[in-house]
Structures are given as structure tokens and as C-alpha cells.
Amino acid sequence: MNNDNKSVNVEEAPIKSATLSTEMNKLYRNSNANPTLKFNLALAHGSNLNDSYVSKRYGINSYVSGDIIYSSLSALVKDAKLSADEIIDKAGNSVAAKIYFVVITDDGYEIKSNTVSIDLVDCDHSQVVDPTADKETAGNITEPTYCEICESKFNAKITKGDDVRYYNNLDEAAKDAQKSENEGCTLYPLYNKNGYGGQLVLKKKNGDGGQLVITEGNFTLKYAVRTAFSRPIIINGKAKLTVTGRCAVTAFENQDAFIVRGGDVTFDGLATGSNVTINGGNVTMAANNINCLTINGGNVSISSGGFAEIVTTVSDKVIADYIDPGFWVQDRGTKEWIDIYSLNKATASSTNGLTVRLCPMQIIKPIDTVYYTNGYYPDGIPSLQINAEPWYSNEVDAKVAYQWIAIDENGYETVIEGATDRKLSLENLTTGRYYCRLTYSNATTAGVSMKSDVVTATITECEHSGGEATCTKKAKCEICGAEYGEPLGHDYVVIKIVEPDYRNEGYSVFECTRCKDSYIGNRVPVKPIPDVEEIAVEKTTYNEVDISWKNISGVDGYYVECYVGNQWKQINCSADGDRVAAKLSGLSAGLKYKVRIAAYAGSFTAKFRCFYVDTVPSPVWNINTVKATDETVRISWSRNARADGYKVEWYINNQWSVKTVTGNNNISAVIDGLCAGTRYKVRVSAYKGDLYSPYTYGYIDTLPSKVTGITQTVTSSSFTLKWDKNESADGYTVQYYADGKWNEKTLVGNKKTTVTIGSLKGYKTYKVRIKAYKGELESTFDDIYITTAPTKVSGLKVKSAVDSKAVVIWNADTNADGYNVEYYIGGRWLEKTITDNKTAMAVLGGLTPYITYKVRVRAYKDNLYGDYSYTTVTAVLSPVTNIKVVSAKSNSITVKWGKNASADGYKVEIYKGGKWVKKTLKGSTNATVTIGGLRAGSVYKVRIASYKGANTSTYTYANVKTAK
Ligand SMILES: [Zn+2]
Ligand SMILES: [Zn+2]
Ligand SMILES: [Zn+2]
């Protein structure tokens, strides 16, 4: 058949995908926690999927489960879970479980999910919570011991030394405990995971029917928890076992908790209501509380304990060792405790099933029957006593009668009167034989009578002998044990002297040369730790102070504390040889700190030594010159509020001069004794007490010294100043105020000590200053007022100069007081003073004509004299005057004229013959001349001039007429 061409109807699967995940990806193989793993199964499916008839199966590694029918999709998804045990079981030995789910619909569609991998590992049980761990004396613990990692709850543990191993079940643990390498270990049944009661579930094993069988080993089985077994623990073989623990150990349904068939077993301290059956072996029992002890064989020794029932089938053998009065049995019917007191032939019976075959009743004291009246009896005078003790003494006493019987040498018995107690004092007895009879009178035991052993009591005095006295004890009689004689007493000598130190008191050790007994005596008190001494401040800065003190040998150290910030701050210190040093740091400048030091040794501390240290003040700053003169400089600086004052120093004459300023508010000082115009180095240190801050340096400069020796001269237009040379100056500045401003002239170098200022006005007062300067500094100065001399007179000119006189004039100077007029005559200046300023003229006399004279005039005012104005004057001879004809003759004429004393003579000329005829007359007084040779009645022209040397005055003409 070929269907290739047939159309195919492809049906869509109802489930599209199944996605599997889980939040747990690790399981512990060795855990018994068996958690349930919830898987998240997410299904994607079409809308037409019938909600019912969906199932799943799962696969773990090679294992695939059968189908499981679910009623709905949501149930399938919600219940996707597997138990850890199942996963581990199905995964076999794999290191991981590969898990997937297959989701199947009822009509055959199925889809497989992805695979989830879960690691299968062994837990190292490294985080076990063990409530029994610190319960060495056992308890009644009802909390599980479990591992925090794998959550396994342990059924058992084995400890050996510090080694602890935990087990999921007791069988495995018991198996390990029996191994020879675990000899001496302790096996603990633990409160297990089955909850209340802590029933130990013993895994069934082939042939053992679930019983725990211990056949070997040598270990302790210790109960720290309330424990119940479903099956007995069987002990046989070569096992050496101690069973202990103050907890109830029971088996269910009245089975035996323990069956001993062999081995060496000790039951010690079981608090149990359980049954123990002993069929063989060697069993020791003490301090147990056992419900029913069944003894069918073996060797049993019971020293104490309680039993509700003892059943034995082997009579004498078992009970023969019951000699301890602390041993008791409870009546199972009445629940009352019953004393067992039985001589070897006596019996005691209970109302309900108690069977005691044999019980001893013996006289237990004294051990021997010899009584020494002077013997050693520490518990008082001995008595004969029997060992049985009534349980409820009040009640039993009322029902029991004691009789003490003496037997004489012939065997006759006599009841000792008044001896009705369990004890019979030997004090009043004589040597003989005695026994006690006990008779019950209560309802159940009425008439039961028991007879104790017969003992012989020998009453005698001891003749002490033997034994050796020691230092402290008398000799002890070897016969009766009494002490006799006297002790030797100790022979102490000092064998060691321990000096006291700072920690321990001193003492001497005394030792007895005989017995070596020693004691400590001659105690000397602990040496007091001395106060620290020689405290010294080694170094101080603004923020640190190094201190040291003398080391005290033998102490452990020192408490060094500095009070900083309102609290004591601990300071480290270190010893170096003889000294101990400590550094106080983090301090503030210029402060006082309290420090205390005490040595300590062991728990002893010496008294604190307190003292103060100061820190160095901060340096000053801002050293400024406030004011300088030529000899002093006032400086100032910033205030240091923590200082006591300041030390100011300046370097002069190759050394520092010092000045101390007290009080921190005083922040300036005058440095004096300085030279003018000089630069000095200064330094300032703030001090506090004897601590000085580092210096702050600066320079000061004195002013050049004031200019001295100033002299002034003035002219009409200038003044000239002179002064003394100033060695401290670089030069000079001369200032004067003119034209509304200060004008200045600077002289460089100190050698030139004069200056002239010109172009000034006369009569004017100028303010002038001379300052010496050095660099930029100027000396002090005084204002000088300089008044210029009167203005130079003007308009000086010669008004007239004839013969011996000249008149000079000038412009009047209204500012002047007057004038000096001088002309140089006769080799000197001839002065003429005019004492008012209006007379601006002067007549100069005594001149010689034709001689030129220098003339000068100056104005004066007060004592100031203006510049001279110069001119010259040259007088001429005045023309001849007053020519008169004295006589006229016809041929001569005599003429006379006024004499001129300034003249040397006269030149007289007459015009005659067409020419001037000259005649010279010498001498000024010859002012008359007669001219002859004239014609009568003729008029002649005459001219006369006076002469001086070669100079001649102008001619004066006259006409003269001769007589007829
Ligand atoms: Zn674990
Ligand atoms: Zn003695
Ligand atoms: Zn001694």
C-alpha cells in the first residue's frame, strides 16, 4: 500500500512541555533525616486537555517508577515529591541522582521533563548539636542529638578521649564499641528521632531478632537519656561492660532490659524500673534501682541499691554476699520497703511474692572481740551491734525486740538486763561470749526470731608497746592502737629566707629536721613601692614634654597619666637603664598640664606623684617697629595670651642684649642705647615660667641722627645752610616751603654739608627742614624759619657827580629799615647809613673828579642786609663860574672866577689873533689871571676851564673888554 499521497491529520499533543526543578540540590547519604523533596513541576498544555486522567512516573538514574494515576493536573503538579531515602536508594552508588518526571495523559500522550541533578554526598557531621555533650553524670535529656548540616538525628555516640563519633543506629555503634581498638570507650544511647521516650529501635538482624548482643569489648554503656528498648540487651561472651547513667532504662512489655549470660558486667547507678536477668558471668551491682532482678546463675555481688523484687533459684550462692545495710527490697504488693535481716537460717517473707531466701545478721562491731579499756576507740566506747537496720525505725522498733544474751564458760545463757537495743556497749561487760536475738512482733512477722552470730568479748587493759613517736604524734600502740607517751615535738630550723619584694611578702621557711614538716613564718610585709623620684623634664616643646624619672628596679611598670581634655590619659613609658622616659604628646602650647606617675608591681600600686609640666609658649609673630628714633626703637609683636611675658633681645656690640617684658599684655618694648642710622637684629621669645618659645627674628633700624650745627646765612634771594657732618647718614634732604609747596633738594653722601637755595624773594620767611637720611629712614628735625635779606635795591644810579661830590639815588624800599650806602675811597669802603627807607639817595663827598668810584647800596632790615646794588660814580669838574673882570686895562685885563678846590688848576684861553691863546694856572687857588697884550677897548672872548690831571672841565665862556 502506498499512502504517500494521502493527507495526514496531525493531532497536537495535549501537553506541550513539563519543566522540573527543585530547591534542594544535595542529599546526605549518611543522614537519617529523610526529608521529603518537593519538586516544582510546571506543565504547559493546551486548553483541551482533560483535567482528569493525568499521571506521572519518575526516573532516578536507571530506575523508572510505575505509573501513578492522578485525578487532576493541579494535584499532579502540587504533589510532585520524593523522599530522600527513596532517591538515595534508587540512585544506587551514583554520586548524583538524575531525576525526571514523565507526565502521561490517559489517552497515551506523554512528555518527559528535563532532568534535575541532586548531589549525593556524605556529611562529615562537623556541626553536631549534642545536648549530652557536657552531661558526664547523665541526666534525663529529651532533646535529640542532631547534625545541623544533614539534620540526621543520632541514636548513639561513642566517645574515646576527645574523639566523638555519632551513629544513626545503636547497633552500628555497639558493633564499633566492641572493637579492640576502641577499648575503654563509652557508648551512649541517645535520644533518637522517634520522639518521646527515646525508644531505641534496634535494627533486626538475621538470627538476633532485633536484640542488641554484646559479646566482646571492654567499654562503658552509659545512659544520658531517657531510654527504652523494644528488645533486651544481651551480654555474653568475653564482654567487659559497665552499665551506668542515672536514667530509666526500660524494656517494653516487662521484658528484660538486660540479660547477662556471660562476661564481666557492672551495673552502676541505673535508675530504672526495668528487669535484669543474670544467667551467668560475673556481675557487680551498686546503687541501682531495679524492678526485678532474677538471678539464675553466675556470680553476683550487690553492694547497695534497691529492688522491687529479687527472684533467685540458686539460693545460697547468690545471696551470701549481701552484707551491706544499704541494700533494700520493696514489697511489690504494698510498695513498702522491707529490711532484709536474716541469719543464715532465717527467712523473711513478704505479703506478695517477695522471696528472700537468705540474709545475714551479724554482729558487726567490734571487728575483733578484744576490748581494751585503755584502747583506741575514736568513735566512742565500742559496742556490740548487729548489722540489720529497720527501714522505718519508729514503726519497726515498736515491732521488734532485741535481746542480748551472755554465755558463761559452762554454756549457760543469761539475758542481760536492760540490753534491749541493737547495740550493746562493752563498757560494763566482762570477758565472755555474747549474742543478740531479734524478735518481730507485728502481724505479718510475729514470732519471727533471728539470732545473731556469737562473739567473744575480751575486756582487758593493754600494756602499750610498739610504735614510734613522731614529732607530732605519740607512739601508737601496736596492740590496741591507742597512742601513748608524748610526741617528740618538731625541731624546726630555718632553711630558706625569702626577702619581700613589691609583690609578695617576705618570709622564712622553717623545716623540721626530722619530719621535714615545714611552715612559713617570720612574715615580712610586702615592700611598699616607693614613690617615683628624680622626676625631670628632659625636653619641652610647644606640644610635647619629655619627662623621665629614676627607674625603680623590681616594679612591673608605671602608670603615667596626663590630664588632657578633662580626663586622665594613659601615657606609655619605657625604661632605659637607670631612667624611665615618657613622652607627653598632643599638648597645646603654653599650657600647664598635670601629670601623675605611680609605679606598680603585681596588684600593688604606689601612691601617685603629681606634678605639673608646662609646654613652651608659641612663638610671637609680627614683630613691627612702632617708632624709631636715632637712639631707640620701639617694637611690638603679637600677643601670646598663654605667656608670662616676653624676652626681647637685640644684637649689639657682638652680643645679645636682653630686656624682659612682664605680662603677656605688654607687647611692646623700647630698645635703647642704639647708634643712629644702624640696623640691628632683634629677636623675641615668649616665656612662661622658665620656658621660652623659639625666637622670632626681625630687624630694626634707628633713624639717622638729627642734623646739628645748623647755621644759616641769607641773601636777598637765597639762603645758605651749613651743618655738621652726620656720620650716620647716607645724605641729606633739605626741604623748604615755597610757592605753596615743599621743595626739596637732596644731597647724596654725608660729606657735603652745605646747601644754598636761590631764586627766592627778599624779605620772605621760609620754613626749612634739614633731614639726614639713611636708606628710607629720615632723622628727626626741627623746623627752621629763614628770612631772606631785604631785596636788592633797584634803580641805583648817579644823579650827579661834580667836583668832589656825587649824588646817588635808588628806588625807595618801603620794607627796609634803611640803607647802607658805600663807596670805595681811600682804599676802603666808606659807609654811610641811611636809617629810614624814604631817603633813597645819598651824597658822596670827598671825591676826586675823574676818578671812578665803586658805589654800592643795600637795604637793611633789622640785622639783615640785602644784596648790594653796585654802580660807579665819576665826578667831573664843574664849569668855572663867577667869571668877573677884576680890572680892565687897555692892554690887559684881569679876570677872576670862582675857585674850585677840586681842580688842579685852570686853563684860561683868550681868543686873540684868531686863535685861542692858552694860559694854564696851576693851583686851585690861582683863580685870578691877568691877560696882557691886549688891545684897548677891545672885546675878547675868554674861556676858562678848570682841570684835573689831564681832564678838563667844560669851558665857561665870557666876553671881556679892555679898557680904552
Ligand atoms: Zn551531618
Ligand atoms: Zn595498747
Ligand atoms: Zn618534725
From TrEMBL:
Gene3D superfamilies: Immunoglobulins. The keyword Nucleotide-binding does not apply. It comes from [Eubacterium] siraeum CAG:80. This is Fibronectin type III domain. Pfam families: fn3. InterPro entries: ECM_Regulatory_Proteins, FN3_dom, FN3_sf, Ig-like_fold. The keyword Repeat applies. Residues 616-706, 789-878, 879-964 form the Fibronectin type-III domain. Keywords: Repeat.
